[in-house]
């Protein structure tokens, strides 16, 4: 992607968001009529996720060279995800204890939403089972990304062990990956229109935002402050210390992906553009981008984990339950582990919330207190998730085996 094209995409997406806000301000609920444009764009992005995840993971693994060294890189990647997620949760817990956003909340109208009741029985056993599918084709059809990643990891590793017989298969996935990335570039031409439809439709449906968040303003402020600290201080510091890269320039080059993440509220839907920005604009090695980013889009949920921790303590404060240090440590561990593992289950954020609340015996009715603003906060935490993935690619690149062969897709 040339700098001119990339800058044009960034400007187009930013213009689409700005136009959506102006349209909602001027025409209100009438902007719901353009929502289908966003739905069309989102479907087009999702259409290429499965082939992109499979191809990029397999190409990334085979580019690593000796598969025995993949364990070290994979371990470092998971260590990065686990540590950054734990740091995010810790920031959230500190802020919610200081600001006490749930004190004095009216909980008389709180009810258990039907979606929460449907997920109440989900536990860590279900998350563990979600890593492996008994029908990989069905998992692809249902957009269950986690088992697709596990399958791709194993397939890519095996292909590196069978010599010349594996070369044609690897070449196929290399070609598929290149073709899918070209499709991404074509999609970017309609990105401004799609983003406009997504944002305008969602905000028009929300009605009066000020009235909606009035009673939850302090809670939202706590979540956004925590996300801001993690995104503006913690992640840039890690990126600078471990990769030597300029965090400001790195983020600026990632602008199109971050804006798309905010618009779609989906790390997976943003994945094609994230790979494009990280590789082409930030010059991260392809073998790092193709391995780290698809994995991160599924299991690295810094923003989500922070949000879940704040929400859990907010609910505890609202219903008058005091959680001690031991219980808050349980929240930290549960939110960290659930955020890493729950992505393979539909409504992953809701599943995580249920698991965290059940771990410290908090009432599930509390979820009803925050659902009104969940859709808006989801956009901010998804943006932080994508930023964390991109920083991870820059960090892990420094730990790749130095004797790895040239990338299959290097020009």
Structural topology:
Layout: H1 3-27, H2 35-47, H3 49-62, H4 70-99, H5 114-119, H6 124-129, H7 136-141, H8 145-159, H9 167-188, H10 191-206, H11 209-213, H12 217-243, H13 247-253, H14 255-264, H15 267-281, H16 286-299, H17 302-318, H18 325-341, H19 348-359, H20 367-396
Task: Look at the structure and give the mean pLDDT.
Answer: 81
Helical run tally: 20
Shape estimate: globular
Our Rg estimate from Cα atoms comes to 21 Å
- Strand tally is 0
Q: Would you list the SSEs in sequence order as H and E?
A: HHHHHHHHHHHHHHHHHHHH
CATH class: Mainly Alpha
- The CA-CA distance between the termini, in Å, is 13 Å
Please give a structural write-up.
The protein is an all-alpha fold and about 400 residues long. It has one domain (about 5-400): Orthogonal Bundle (Proton glutamate symport protein), CATH 1.10.3860.10. Helices cover about 75% and strands about 0% of the residues. It is built from 20 helices and no strands. The protein has helices spanning about 5-25, 35-45, 50-60, 70-100, 115-120, 125-130, 135-140, 145-160, 165-190, 190-205, 210-215, 215-245, 245-255, 255-265, 265-280, 285-300, 300-320, 325-340, 350-360, 365-395. Helix 3 (about 50-60) crosses helix 9, helix 4 (about 70-100) runs antiparallel to helix 20 and helix 14 (about 255-265) runs antiparallel to helix 15 (about 265-280). The longest helix has 30 residues, at about 70-100. Mean pLDDT is about 80; it is low at about 405-410.
């Amino acid at each position: 992607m040339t700098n001119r094209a990339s800058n044009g995409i960034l400007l187009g997406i930013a213009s689409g968001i700005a136009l959506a806000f102006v349209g909602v301000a001027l025409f209100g609920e009438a902007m719901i009529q353009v929502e289908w444009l966003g739905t069309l764009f989102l479907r087009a992005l999702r259409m290429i996720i499965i082939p992109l995840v499979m191809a990029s993971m397999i190409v990334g693994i085979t580019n690593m060279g000796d598969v025995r060294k993949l364990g070290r890189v994979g371990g470092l990647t998971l260590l990065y995800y686990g540590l950054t997620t734990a740091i995010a949760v810790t920031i959230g817990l500190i802020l919610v204890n200081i600001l006490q956003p749930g004190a004095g909340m009216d909980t008389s109208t709180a009810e258990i939403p039907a979606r929460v009741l449907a997920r109440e029985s989900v536990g860590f056993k279900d998350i563990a089972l979600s890593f492996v599918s008994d029908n990989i084709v069905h998992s692809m059809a249902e957009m269950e990304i986690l088992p697709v990643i596990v399958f791709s990891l194993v397939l890519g590793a095996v292909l590196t062990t069978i010599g010349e017989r594996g070369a044609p298969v690897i070449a196929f996935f290399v070609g598929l990956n290149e073709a899918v990335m070209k499709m991404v570039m074509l999609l970017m031409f309609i990105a401004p229109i799609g983003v406009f439809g997504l944002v305008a439709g969602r905000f028009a449906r929300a009605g009066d935002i000020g009235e909606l968040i009035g009673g939850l303003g302090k809670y939202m402020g706590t979540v956004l402050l925590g996300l801001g600290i993690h995104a503006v201080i913690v992640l840039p510091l890690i990126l600078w210390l471990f990769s030597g890269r300029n965090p400001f320039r790195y983020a600026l080059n990632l602008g199109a992906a971050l804006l798309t993440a905010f618009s779609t509220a989906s790390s997976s839907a943003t994945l094609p553009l994230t790979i494009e920005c990280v590789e082409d604009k930030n010059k991260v090695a392809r073998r790092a981008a193709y391995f780290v980013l698809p994995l991160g889009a599924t299991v690295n949920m810094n923003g989500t984990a922070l949000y879940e921790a704040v929400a859990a303590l907010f609910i505890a404060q609202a219903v008058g339950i005091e959680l001690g240090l031991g219980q808050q440590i349980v929240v930290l561990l549960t939110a960290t582990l659930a955020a890493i593992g729950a992505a393979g289950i539909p409504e992953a954020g809701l599943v995580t919330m249920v698991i965290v609340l059940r771990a410290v015996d908090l009432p599930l009715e509390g979820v009803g207190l925050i659902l009104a603003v969940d859709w808006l906060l989801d956009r901010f935490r998804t943006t932080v998730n994508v930023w964390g993935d991109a920083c991870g690619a820059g960090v892990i690149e420094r730990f790749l085996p130095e004797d790895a062969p040239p990338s299959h897709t290097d020009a």
